[in-house]
């Protein structure tokens, strides 16, 4: 990197000592554009908008839980529906795009890899 880049920092609304960010950024993965050259730079690059990631509305319960649901429904004398084995997904981020009813999400929560496989040895899993 040629030259020295010194920036002012602040913490809790108090200005701190200026620091040289050149010593932190040993790779020149950035460059500064002069104010007059911003318009030319923005015209030279192509901005690609990515489609939003659509998150699923629900996900399948783990296999042991599904087995419990089957047994509970059998004890009640009711045949379980596929919807009984799905748990509604809750997302904390308000900007998350959730699939509407009937809409296909960008990905699904389908792959289940147990952390403790010995608990699943006697359970017949669907493949």
UniProtKB/TrEMBL annotation:
One of its GO terms (molecular function) is structural constituent of ribosome. InterPro entries: Ribosomal_mS34. GO terms for cellular component: mitochondrion. Pfam families: MRP-S34. This is Uncharacterized protein. It comes from Allacma fusca.
């Amino acid at each position: 990197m040629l030259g020295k880049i010194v920036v002012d920092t602040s913490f809790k609304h108090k200005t701190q000592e200026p620091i040289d960010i050149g010593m932190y950024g040993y790779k020149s993965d950035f460059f500064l554009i002069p104010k007059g050259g911003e318009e030319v730079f923005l015209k030279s690059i192509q901005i690609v908008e990515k489609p939003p990631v659509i998150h699923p509305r629900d996900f399948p319960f783990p296999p042991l839980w599904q087995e419990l649901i089957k047994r509970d429904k059998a004890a009640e004398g009711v045949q379980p529906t596929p919807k009984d084995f799905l748990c509604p997904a809750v997302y904390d981020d308000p900007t998350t795009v959730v699939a509407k009813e009937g809409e296909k999400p960008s990905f699904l929560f389908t792959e289940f890899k147990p952390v403790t496989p010995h608990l699943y040895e006697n359970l017949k899993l669907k493949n």
